[in-house]
Write a structure and sequence with these properties.
GO terms for molecular function: single-stranded DNA binding. This is Single-strand binding protein family. InterPro entries: NA-bd_OB-fold (IPR012340), ssDNA-bd (IPR011344). One of its GO terms (cellular component) is mitochondrial nucleoid. This protein is α+β, with helices and mostly antiparallel strands and 261 residues long. The protein has one domain: OB fold (Dihydrolipoamide Acetyltransferase, E2P) (Beta Barrel), CATH 2.40.50.140. It has seven helices and eleven strands. The chain has helices at residues 2-12, 31-38, 101-109, 151-158, 164-168, 172-194, 231-260; strands spanning 25-26, 29-30, 53-60, 65-66, 74-81, 91-98, 115-128, 134-147, 199-201, 214-216, 222-223. The strands form three sheets. A five-stranded mixed β-barrel has the order 3-5-6-8-7. Strands 9-10-11 form a three-stranded antiparallel β-sheet, covered by helices on one side. Strands 1-2 form a two-stranded antiparallel ribbon. A hairpin with a 5-residue loop joins strand 10 and strand 11 (222-223). Helix 2 crosses helix 7 (231-260). The radius of gyration is 25 Å and the shape is globular.
């Protein structure tokens, strides 16, 4: 009996120094945090997650129109541009399908050149051509639609003391650059929420106050939290934090059970 007990102790127990506290930093990440980030993704029920959910920020390039014939709803096209950090500066078009309340709202308020954020279920449709060929294209069944503020609109809402004279002296090129910077930043948020595991979360481990809150592991792109971030960014970030907290509790429990029992 005694020999079996000694065998068990040697086989399963490690020196006390081998056990790391969750507060012990390894580089710029704690051991438990890194374990949770590198662990197997959690499994969810298909019914509990949105079906092929997607989101885009783009510019309206066609007027909103109602479907012809017996089809209900309305549609438009947006152009989605890639961020300047991408190896390609190309863009693509995607059709938006609008129904119910969003149909009426879009027909009333949505105009060409508006910059909007949309999210919904990704689908496809077939387009037939006169030569007999056909093509398959993607569309978004829109469930959420928001206007995206341009830099000048943000200035007006946050700096009401700026006079009309000062407003008129802002160079056009400067405004265009600011709009592009805003569009690129919001697109990076899309990239982040699509694959958050590809980014480092540095909010709790900054080397200095000006460091990025999130940093891409490969491209080194950075994201900083800002007071003027759209509401959809804050909502998605809250969901991200709750998922991380849930996975972290699960992984810590699994690690404790594996190493101490």
């Amino acid at each position: 009996m005694e020999s079996r007990r000694l065998f068990f102790l040697k086989r399963f127990l490690r020196p006390f120094s081998a056990y790391r506290s969750a507060r012990t930093g390894v580089g710029d990440k704690s051991f438990v945090y890194r374990q949770s980030m590198l662990g197997r993704p959690s499994t969810v029920r298909r019914q509990s997650v949105p079906w092929n959910l997607c989101s885009f920020i783009g510019t309206v390039i066609r007027p909103v129109k109602r479907y012809a014939g017996n089809f209900t709803g309305a549609y438009t096209l947006i152009e989605v541009k890639r961020p300047s950090c991408s190896s390609s500066s190309s863009s693509f078009w995607i059709l938006l399908s609008l129904s119910n309340k969003l149909e009426e709202v879009s027909l009333k308020y949505l105009n060409v050149n508006d910059t909007i954020y949309v999210s919904g279920r990704l689908g496809s449709y077939t387009k037939h051509y006169e030569d007999g060929s056909c093509g398959i294209f993607y569309k978004v069944h829109v469930k959420d639609l928001n206007f995206v503020k341009h830099y000048r609109q943000i200035q007006k809402s946050t700096e009401t003391e700026i006079s009309a004279v000062q407003e008129s002296t802002v160079p056009i090129s400067s405004t265009a650059d600011d709009d592009k910077e805003l569009r690129d930043r919001l697109h990076l948020w899309q990239v982040f929420f699509a694959n958050p595991h590809e980014w480092w979360d540095n909010r709790q481990s900054k080397f200095y106050s000006g460091s990025a809150d999130f940093r891409h592991k490969d491209t080194r792109d950075g994201l900083w939290l800002r007071p003027d971030d759209p509401s959809w960014v804050r909502r998605q970030l809250q969901l991200y934090d709750s998922n991380i907290a849930m996975n972290r509790r699960s992984k810590v429990h699994e690690w404790e059970m594996k190493d101490f029992l």
